[in-house]
Amino acid sequence: MRLRKITLREIHMQLLSPFQTSFGTSNLRRILLLEALTADGVVGWGESTAGENPFYSYETVETAWLILRDYLWPMLRGREFAAADVWDILSPVRGHNMAKAAVEIATWDAEAKQKGVPLAKLLGGTRAEIPCGVSIGIQPSTDALAKKVKDALDQGYQRIKIKIKPGCDLEPVRALRHEFPNIRLMVDANSAYSLEDAALLKQLDAFYLIMIEQPLGWDDIFSHSILQRQIETPICLDECIHELDHARAAIETRSCKIINIKLGRVGGHTAARRIHDLCEKNSIPVWCGGMLESGVGRAHNIAMSSLSNFSLPGDVSASKRYWAGDIVEPEVEVTPQGTIRVPTAPGIGYAPRIDRIESLTKRREVLE
Predict the structure, then answer these.
(1) Quick check: is 148 catalytic?
(2) Catalytic residue among 163, 165, 202, 281
(3) 333-344 burial: b if 16+ Cβ within 10 Å, else e
C-alpha cells in the first residue's frame, strides 16, 4: 500500500469512574487517534495508548504526536509497503513504541480492508471468541472493592485483576479471597515494590493467585528473576517487555512465567506476533493488557487476542465499563459467558462513529 495522508486527532473521553493505580488516578483520557488514508481510498484506524503523564511510560500524548509528525510520517510518506513491513521501516527511531503502534496498527486495519478479510484472520488468529477479564483500580475500602468484583462476576467476566500498592495489598486480597474463594484472581503492582519487599510479596502465595503482575522495577528484568525464585505465585512481566529481546531475556533468566502483551508498549501487531510466537515456543502463556483504550484500540486488542497463545483472559472488556458512549459501532460487548466474539467483517470489524469522534476532538493535524 501507499499512504496518501494521515490525520492525527486528540480526543477527550471522560471515564465513568476514576481508575486508580499505584502511580496515579485517571478521570479523563486524552487519546491520540490516527486515521490513515491509502492511495486507493481505504481508511485504516489506529490509536496510541500513550497517557497524559510519563508515569506508566516515558511516552505521552505530546511526545507521540511529535514523533509521528516529525519522524515516523516522513519515513512512510511516498513509500510502497505492506503492513508487516512498517515495524522494520520505523526501526531507525529508538523506542517510542506507542507512537509507532498508532500508525502500524492503522496500516494493518487498512490492509485487512483492502483484502476484504477480518484483521484477526490476517494476523493469523484462530479464535472465534476470546475470554475476558476485568481490571479494577484501587478502591477506598474493601467493601467498595468487593462490590466492584461482584458486579464484574455478575456480568460474566472470567478473571478479576485488582491493583495493589504498598499499604494496600494483603488486606484487599485476603478479603476478596475470603468472600470469593473460587474466583480466578490476580494482582497488578505496576512496579510499586522492590526486592526488599520479597517477604511481604511471598505472603501472597497463601491466596493462590493466577499471577502477580510487574511487582518490581519497570525496567528491571534481573531482579524479577531473584524474586521468582523466592515466591510460588507466577510473576507476569508487563512494563519490562518492550521488544522481542526483552521477552527472550525474561524467559532465559526465568524472571517470569507469564507475559502481558500490550500493542502500544511493544510497537504494534508485528512486534506483538513475534513476542507471542517466542513465548508459545517456550510454553510461556500470554494475555492482552489494557490501557483504557477507546473502541478503536479495543478492537485491535480483540484481533490480537485471537492468536493461539493468548490462553489467559485479558483486560479486553466491554465499552460500557468505561465510557458512557464509545467511538465505534457496535460498541464492544461481552457475552454472559465472559467472552467477546471476534468480528468477521473486514478490518477491525467495528465502524468508527465519525460524528462522535468529531464532537470529542480537541485538536487535529493532517499530514499529507
Answers:
(1) no
(2) 163
(3) ebeeebbbebbe
